[in-house]
Specification:
- The complex is a heterodimer of chains A (112) and B (112).
- Chain A has 112 residues and is mostly beta strands.
- Chain A contains no helices and 11 strands.
- In chain A, the strands form 2 sheets. In chain A, strands 2, 4, 5, 6, 9, 10 and 11 form a 7-stranded mixed beta sheet that branches. A 4-stranded antiparallel beta sheet of chain A has the order 1-3-8-7, with no helix packed on it.
- Chain B is an all-beta fold and 112 residues long.
- In chain B, 0% of the residues lie in helices and 55% in strands.
- Chain B contains no helices and 11 strands.
- In chain B, the strands form 2 sheets. In chain B, strands 2, 4, 5, 9, 10 and 11 form a 6-stranded mixed beta sheet that branches. Chain B has a 5-stranded antiparallel beta sheet with strand order 1-3-8-7-6, with no helix packed on it.
- In chain B, a hairpin with a 6-residue loop joins strand 9 and strand 10.
- Classes of the chains: A mainly beta (112), B mainly beta (112).
- The interface between A and B is medium-sized, with 21 and 23 residues.
Chain lengths: 112, 112
């Protein structure tokens, strides 16, 4: 069982759809993150949660809505996305915020 | 956000050759991390560095925290085909919170 698990691995959605990405960590960590990875660009930090409370939101459009019901689960709710939102979305966790992060395998999102 | 300049962008080498890559910034970092990402997967942590001048090895990989605190280096000795992937550096800036900033990656191809 991997430490950080993301589902689905691949997602194709239309611009009017609503979908959710799920992340689960089995490492007992207190911090969880969402990153966006686009081609030829550095990983972009989107959201940070510490003990289920959002501690950072890096100017992400409201069409991305995170949810952290407990320290082991993290969701990213998607609504009315644009084609430029197509990317690999990576979830990560760390013992505390600022510690080295362990990544999931990512969800490859394509918006059509 | 902070910019990490990672070089080279890509490398094509023969199996058995040694590899060197680096990451530089204009800011002072207190932590450097090196990750490897295989196609279709999330980044996997290779080495973490916490002190200026620190030299740490992980098998055939060796990384160093530059003494100026503004750079880090990763070396791979005697490359093998499974070293193929994208290598990312990540750094945390001293006294500015807990966010890690990522480089754009070095794509490594090993020719058997």
């Amino acid at each position: 069982e991997t430490g950080v698990t993301q589902t689905p691995r691949h997602l194709v959605m239309g611009m009017t759809n609503k979908k959710s990405l799920k992340c689960e960590q089995h490492l007992g960590h207190n911090a969880m993150y969402w990153y966006k990875q686009s081609a030829k660009k550095p990983l972009e930090l989107m959201f940070v949660y510490s003990l289920e409370e959002r501690v950072e939101n890096n100017s992400v459009p409201s069409r991305f809505s995170p949810e952290c019901p407990n320290s082991s689960h993290l969701f990213l709710h998607l609504h009315t996305l644009q084609p430029e939102d197509s990317a690999l979305y990576l979830c990560a966790s760390s013992q505390e915020t600022g510690d080295q992060a362990f990544f999931g395998q990512g969800t490859r999102l394509t918006v059509v | 956000g902070q910019q990490l300049n990672q070089s080279p962008q890509s490398m094509f080498i023969q199996e058995g050759e040694d590899v060197s890559m680096n990451c530089t910034s204009s800011s002072i970092f207190n932590t450097w991390l090196w990750y490897k990402q295989d196609p279709g997967e999330g980044p996997v942590l290779l080495i973490a560095l916490y002190k200026a001048g620190e030299l740490t090895s992980n098998g055939r990989l060796t990384a160093q925290f530059g003494i100026t605190r503004k750079d880090s280096f990763l070396n791979i000795s005697a490359s093998i085909p499974s070293d193929v992937g994208i290598y990312f550096c990540a750094g945390r800036i001293r006294n500015t919170g807990n966010q890690f900033y990522f480089g754009t990656g070095t794509s490594l191809t090993v020719i058997p």
